[in-house]
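note to self — DONT lose this again. spent like an hour looking for the file last time. sequence + predicted structure for the chain T wanted, 135 res
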Amino acid sequence: MNNSVNYSVTSANAMQTVSELEFTAKVSVIALQTLQLDSRGEKLVALERLTAALNLAEPGGIIRLFVDFGSQMADLLKQLIKHNVAVEYIKLILDAFKEDEHRAVFLQFNPANQSAALATITTFFPFFIFRATFC
């Protein structure tokens, strides 16, 4: 009986993890649409989609996802601040961009950390391929 309880808890945890991944994938897709629209010159629609992504992501505190989309995303976020959209949340995300820049500079000048960064990227690379393939 104890095993079935543990199985139920594990099953519930697995379902929660899947649900969280699906939610993150949904935000990722909207963020990608934002970048695509911006690249096609559809700035207003891109900002509307980004606002939708932020509205979904903010309650969960999703920050890294936006940072991973790079400087184009940072530029769009700065434009939303000018329109007074999710200002405090966007500031948190932009702060993470700054931290990322500092980390990149540190890695660039510290060869010992470059191998650690490469190991981290190599470890998580299959997950990113999976995520990109199924989103």
